[in-house]
Design a protein that fits this description.
By secondary structure, the protein is an alpha/beta fold. The strands form two sheets. Strands 3-2-1-4-5 form a five-stranded mixed β-sheet, with helices on both faces. Helix 1 runs parallel beside helix 2. It is globular and about 55 Å long.
Amino acid sequence: MLVLAIDTALDACAAGVLDTNAGRLIAQETLPMRRGHAETLMPLIARVIESAGIAVAALDRIVATTGPGSFTGLRVGLSAARGIALAADKPVVGVTTLAAFAAPVIGENRKSPVISAIDARHDQVYFQTISGDGATLVHPRVAPIEEALAASRFGAPHLVGNAAKLLADRWPTHLAPPVAVDPQPAPDIAWVAWLGAAVSPNAAPPRPYYLRAPDAKPAGNFLLKTQTLAAL
């Protein structure tokens, strides 16, 4: 299976092509950024597709991150994914940023629980807690930092996500410290791709995953830009 993965949810603009038969990404590019995803994404995807040496029609699936994350960034990535899927007549799926942050840690088969956390500002985080074997302990939610810290009841965790250090700095001193702190600004595009390859299209719709109401408006007409890839 050839999977095009797209991530614009947080502080990066990234795309990659996964070849599941080869067991690796055959092309990828990630640019750190907080703004400017709309102008950057389509040229970046075009470079990745060219580097992979394939046509858009050869793709089997497109996946994009659905959030939590920047309202505008999510709209950019999801609009691109839907447009390319429409042009290529292929399915499109979505994966959450929290799951993408946690996936590589769960893949290491460690026993420690994993708290994936994203800064929601105003002393809040988006977070979820997963056991070392992948079972959900705390479902995704937006909550005060103190509530996220209460997940320490499951044991000393591996903290991952752009709010990992934020949690680590507030970790109660009377508790065992986190076993690891991995403050990534954005998910690894490879794991976005692998999750996108694994999910069922019927169970992973490509729509924004909001845990609270957005406070921004979507950029207009971005979907039209995806037509630049239709001829590839």
